[in-house]
TrEMBL record:
Renumbered residue ranges of the record's region Disordered: 391-410
Residue positions, PTM 4-aspartylphosphate: D60
Organism of derivation: Nannocystis exedens
Alphabetized UniProt keyword annotations: ATP-binding, DNA-binding, Nucleotide-binding, Phosphoprotein, Transcription, Transcription regulation
Transmembrane segments: none
Protein name per UniProt: DNA-binding transcriptional response regulator, NtrC family, contains REC, AAA-type ATPase, and a Fis-type DNA-binding domains
Domain (Sigma-54 factor interaction): residue spans on this chain: 149-379
Amino acid sequence: MTSEPKVLRPHVLLVDDEPEWGDALGEQLGRRGFKVHVARDAAAALALLESQEIDALVTDLRLERGDGVSLMVQAQELVPQLPTIVMTAYGAIDTAVEAIRRGAFHYLTKPFGVDELVLFLRRALDDRRLRRETGELRRRLNDAAPQGLVGRSTAMRAVFEVMARIADADVPVLLTGETGTGKTTIAAALHARSQRASAPFVAVNCAAIPEQLLESELFGHTRGAFTGATQASPGLFAEADHGTLFLDEIGELQPALQAKLLHVIERGVIRPLGGTRERRVNTRILAATNLDLAAAVRAGEFREDLYYRLALVVLEIPPLRDRREDIPLLVEQCLESARRRHPTAAPRRIGDEVMAAFLAYRWPGNVRELAHLIERLVLLSRNEVIAPSDLPRGFGSEGPDAAESGPGPFGDTVLPLREIQRRYARWAVAQNGGVKAHAARALGVDIKTLMKLLSE
């Protein structure tokens, strides 16, 4: 014969300095399924809160020693979110309303029926349970985010879900998204959650290294392979052996290197520049781009076979404007990080008006732009609370489509054409995250022409 499951009785602390009323009410609550602890004053009630596990507090507002509002405040310091119901005489309703304002769940005017108190007690306990479950859900969502990443938005939760599924899958992953969305951070998080976490994570920006040097940087070279090669180098593939190699800006890889990269992916071997012997490597490749690689394949600018090798899994990182609910979390993270780097800086938090401006802004530079702005504000603001006056001149005044509308007005002065070209070129570079190769491509000029425009 199986025994019935034990039903847990909610523990209620009843505080009333009238013995007959308090004892009678406690007895009635006990008959209705509650475990009641009775106290006559605030001091005895606080002692019980420290020694017993209390689920709800019922207190008279007027006590011979102490008062119910002060008791409630002290009780909630000991037991956060402790549901409290206050009892009051008809003439003290104003005080009861003040108790509600300071956190009481409900108030009852004496005399009242026990069933009415039981009804509100159960509602208060249900409310507390829901709050706890909601808090636990939020903690789980935060725990689901890999270390270093924040996000509660639907878009980022989808990213984290895919990351959890592919972290240990030993296949290439292509990260796509606009400049500044955090592709490098996500690549590092994928490595940290994989079985390769104890081996090196090596990152290289394919757009930042000239083509002639990138080949030896990736695959290594022998001594004397080219002018200046005074000693051999194993290359980044070998450095990341048994680990992960992150190829950022993969769309900038030239055709000859695309073919060699495909060879490494297919065969798992590299041959250093100037060498005659191949070396086997076990390296997982993560790649990233802010270009439309599929369009580049159609245009003949990127190898189709390499694209399909890299794009076995595509993880698209949303721009910041599509995850605005994450902005307060990112601001908090960036502010904390900046204050650690600059501990003597004055700012402690972001003001409400500034946060509203952040939420309305389009963020063409995404998370990177936000992080840089927060650091600037921490360094330059003299206020403990960062105010709108601390923001750069014109921030947020361009409107939501400013990032796509051009370099902005030139005022009433007619400028020389070269000056307009120089300003436009600088704006184009800024819009492309400072990567001149991308800006040149967007402008339809070569890198030398862009450099000339910038210098003029």
